[in-house]
Design brief:
- 48% of the residues lie in helices and 5% in strands.
- It contains 3 helices and 2 strands; from the N terminus they run H-H-H-E-E.
- It has a two-stranded parallel sheet.
- The chain has a domain at 25-81.
- By secondary structure, it is mostly helical.
Amino acid sequence: MEVKLPDFYNALNITLMYYDVSTLTPHPSHLARAWMLRRKYNLTFFDSLHAATAIEEDEPIVSYDKRYSDIKDLRYVDPRTIL
């Protein structure tokens, strides 16, 4: 089965709108903070970007990855504690 990317992203957009999920626009401050977090905590690019975005936007990060709990200034929530 071949997935057509435009169709996939259109379906994703419809789903996000249906559930009233907002998305964030990337900012240079997210990337700068991510770079610092990668160096300090030896994170992957995407883990550091997720953590940096949560910190910069003053939002918690909900993840099963307990590694986020080690990051200063990041509010980490294990989903098992809220289910």
